[in-house]
Amino acid sequence: MESLKRFAEILVPDPRQLDFVLVDNSTGTMRPTELKDLYGEAEKLVLHQNVPEAVRYHFENARNLLVYSWFHYPFNSLAMFHGFIAVEKALKIRAGKPRAMLGTLLPLAVKQGWIKDEEFTFGRAQIARRKTPPDNSQTSVAQDTRTYCEILMDSMPNLRNTFAHGEVFLHNGWATSMLICAELINQLFPQPSDQRQ
Predict the structure, then answer these.
(1) What pTM does this model have?
(2) Which of 29, 84, 134, 169 could cysteine-pair with 160, CB 3.0–4.6 Å?
(3) pLDDT digits (tens, 9 = 90+) for 97-134
C-alpha cells in the first residue's frame, strides 16, 4: 500500500528503483541504476518542434514523472498514462476531431497512413523477428500476423483505460512505452527538414 512519504525521506530513492541494474554490454559488468540514468532516458524522449504545444504539455509532464519515479516508483505508471494522454491529444488535433476517442482515432491514423510500422524503433525489431522464418526443428507457435500499428490500435486504448479506471499497474517498461508514444506523436505532424535524420 502506498502512503505519503515522510518529509525527511522525500529525497530518498524509492527502494523499488534500487532493485534494477544496468549491464555494460562491452564488459558484462553490472551497476545499480541511478537517478542520472532515469534522467538520461527521459532526456532522450523528445517531440520535434512542430508538435503542438497542447500535446507537448502532457508529454513534458510524462517525462518529469519518469524522472521523479526515482523517488516514488508508481510515478512511472502515471508517466505512461500521461504519455497516452499526449498521444490521444495529438490524434485529436491531427484528425480535427476534438471529441473522438483513442480507440477510434488510432485506426483512423493507421488507415490514413499517418503512422507507419517502419517509423517505430521498437516496432521495426518486432516486425523483423516476425518475418524471420521459424526454425522447423522446434515446435511451431502461432505467429501474430498483425502489423505493429494494428497491435498498437488494440493495445494502447486498453492500457490507457486500465489507468483511467483506477487499476494498479506497476511495471518497469516505461522507457519503451514512452518511446513508442513519442515516435507515434512525431509521425503525426510534419517534421522540420532541418531536424530530419
Answers:
(1) 0.85
(2) 84
(3) 999 999 999 999 999 999 999 999 876 655 555 555 55
